[in-house]
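2024-03-11 09:14:02 INFO queue: dequeued item SET domain-containing protein, len=349
2024-03-11 09:14:02 INFO validating residues
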Amino acid sequence: MAFLFNKFQDAVRILAKSPTFARYRRKLQFEDDINLLFMYTSYNRLGKNADEADAEEIIDVASKASFTDQQMQVQENVHFQIKNFCTVMDEILLPGSAVPMTRPIKRAELSLRLKDSIGYSLDVKPSQIPHNEASQGLYLNGEANVGAVIAIYPGVIYSPSYYPYIPGYPRVDARNRYLITRYDGIAIDAQPWGYGGEAREIWDSSTMQETRPDTDETMLGKALENSQVRCSGEILECRNPLALAHFANHPTEETVPNVMVCPYDFPLTEKDLRTYIPNISFGNAEEQKVRRLGSSWFRRGSRNSGLDDWDSDVPVLKTLVLVATEALCDEEVLLQRPLWYYSVDEDED
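2024-03-11 09:14:37 INFO prediction written
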């Protein structure tokens, strides 16, 4: 993996000298990130029994597969981990009866139970980054392997057409440190989510005001005044121990980041998993659809499995997760802002 990463870095340095790269720098960096995510998440999916031949196969495929194919496989690999996480959450919270009631477990206890099952959970406490804007930081409690999905970015999802409804628009970043934008322009505002809640409940971004970090209720509500546009409410598990990605800080120049942002399109057809995806969409725009892989490239015993087994188009919720770029153990989660990131504010300049 390191060899291929260095190879791509060399290519980026060469391209950086050309006018073409200057014009398409964000696009090339995004493709480079997907290539790395492909390797990290594919290797993680193979599990502890992966051998050198498996790793070599991943590197070989990564050097030959198209960007689109790699992007699709990243989605499949991340979804595989999300499904496992949701299964564990069900085992902890659901009593196993026909009555749709969850156990009355506090967030702190649920976090510890999750750690016992998957090896890690998350804590929010003062950051060790020496910067006056760092304040709270995100910490991994336990151990996570490279390629693990360690956190989900919660909150309200805005497509570009709904940017004017983001609280504080057009200078949305000025008072909100919990807003992030995907490469495709989808913005996610985690400020309404805050630290989450203590129950599974209908969430429409107005249910947890008392737990929001740095909340300005006037700012948050202004965008919705006299408007017919609203967030569609969903029953979400507000105790979700991994819905804390927005507390990850950026490292200093002397510190190496240990996670990277990964776009994740959650298929809304997975209704049994929906409650554990801590996001809702703003507005009534038609849900976007993508073609989703129906099989893994690296199924054990089927090295030549390909992209032939596809599902039909499915509606998705465009979210973000954080993926470990190295093995982590009881440490602060540090996120390098990708070069393809841009502020919603910049769209107005």
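2024-03-11 09:14:37 INFO annotate: The chain has one domain: 1-96+105-210+229-288+315-332.
2024-03-11 09:14:38 INFO item closed
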